[in-house]
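I hope you will forgive my troubling you with a question about protein structure. The record follows directly beneath this note:
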Amino acid sequence: NFATDRLFAMSRSPRARTEDDAPPTDWLGELPPELHLRILEGVDDFSDCAAFSLASPRLGLLALRSGLARFKDPLFAVAMRLLLVERFVASLGSSIMDTTLSEDTLRRYAADRRASADHFPWLARVSPALCLSSELDGPGDNRIANWRLQRGDESGARLRVGLLRCGFAMFFEGERGAERLVRLVFRSGTVQYYEGER
């Protein structure tokens, strides 16, 4: 029976343990890779994906190499940065320091073509003091999505403008009021770059 054979293969440990073995430091390491992937497929929060990857780098690499969507999403890199900052702050013994995401990290995320406004609630939850916001403007089919930095209740610099119907996106750099267009991306994947002032 295929199902029984597969279950038996998954239940076997890669190496039989003996009494002389030290207790494992990575209990998940005792499980076969097929079961690791099944566990990682169920991880649905980017913070948890980052925690798994830092707790067991081998599992993080397995997830990346296997193409698991959450681990390939650009928000996974944001979650990793945030978790590393939190661990660094904790290693200093300080709980006073703020572990808000950096503006640079948020700008990099917004500049990635794969970034999605669907993830803004997660960003606001993990970094309420500095996150991203999206505003929809325009009538009906001609709606435009404006992505901005958000500091608390204050709207910041414009980072990205997308024409939803045609899949066209403009990317900006600079402070609020001094934003300049740096890149246009068309639905076809064609990219135009701009240099200099505005």
In short: The first strand starts at residue 130 and ends at 137. Residues 1-13 have pLDDT under 50 and may be disordered. The CA atoms of residues 141 and 165 lie 6 Å apart.
